[in-house]
Amino acid sequence: LGADLDGQGVGVSFAAQFKSGSWMAKTFHGGGAGAPTVMAKLPNEPYLFAAAADFKGVNIKAIADSVLAKLPKDKTGWVGRLIHETMPLMANMKSMSEAFYVPSNPANLFAGFPGLAIVETANADAYITSYKTQLAEMSKIKLDLGLDGQSLTVTSKFTDNALTIDGVSVHQYQMKYNLPPAVLKELGPAGMFAGQLTNSAGYIANVNGNVLMTMTIDAGMMKKGIATIKAGNGLGSNGAMDAVRKKGLPKNLAAEGYVSVSGIMKTAGPVLQMFGGPAIGVPQNLPPIAFGSAVEDGGVVQRVYVPVKLIQWVKDTAMQFMQG
Predict the structure, then answer these.
(1) DSSP assignment letter at 30
(2) Residue 293: pLDDT over 80
(3) In this structure, are residues 54 and 38 in contact, taking their beta carbons and an 8 Å threshold?
(4) What is the DSSP secondary structure assignment for residue 238, as one 8-state letter?
(5) Where are the beta strands (DSSP E) in the chain?
(6) Is 152 helix (H, G, I), strand (E, B) or coil?
(7) What pLDDT, in 10s, does the model give residues 71-104?
(8) Pick from 128, 60, 67: which is nearest to 95 by CA?
(9) pTM attached to this predicted model
(10) Is residue 287 within 8 Å of 244, Cβ to Cβ?
(11) Other CB atoms closer than 10 Å to residue 191's CB: what's the count?
């Protein structure tokens, strides 16, 4: 464990070398260094959080098999059935990236943040079929909450070939947790928001062997995702993210993630102003907080990096708040 400071940022690093021949050393064998390429599949739009991982250096199948061995399918109810359906999908994953973007209308946060996930897998169509099966399995859930027999239930729906975007067949999914009347009554006016928060829906499609999935019903976001997967010129290809990566993170990244304070403030700022807060100016290209991991020869290096420019902006903004 170590820390460093220079004129451009503050970094904290952690390194671990697993015992040769151990399960951990065999599982984290190394060789995956493509996280930046995986990140570039995501649309280059203002974001809140973005992460990517290249699983070539990790034995995902060994992890999945270990989990399944500890959870017998016939003894763990619907939870076990879902896990046994999900884990084989993990074993076939080659890479994964995900981002949550700044909403076009920050005042309507309860409608959900526009998000996108991309999974490169050995068989994208099989992955989507299994996800469809998972949704059907979720509909069987009936969880007794001890409220005079009232239960939490789930409603799900999967629509094949709901639309076509740029020659790609796109499916639609929806899942809603149905809160019992007693819970909604207890929540009062907040029950309306709780109902929105427990409802998830979006699109899912096979794009060149990648499973592309949106977190909201947003055909525009799906279109951007399809185009960026094909072009490979998305997030991190240049700009503040790439600069922070090169300065603050290890080489040969197997995984990386970024928290954009700029994106957060673009989302939260208008909401704060609605409640009487001051207008907050966010500089262009304000660098994000970065974290990343490299896996090599049975060892792992992890690092978190915070740019000085971001620290200074946070300090100045805090002073602005304190001064009213």
Answers:
(1) B
(2) yes
(3) yes
(4) S
(5) 2-5, 9-17, 47-54, 93-101, 115-121, 142-147, 150-165, 168-178, 199-207, 210-214, 255-259, 289-296, 299-307
(6) strand
(7) 766 665 666 666 777 777 777 889 999 999 998 8
(8) 60
(9) 0.85
(10) yes
(11) 14
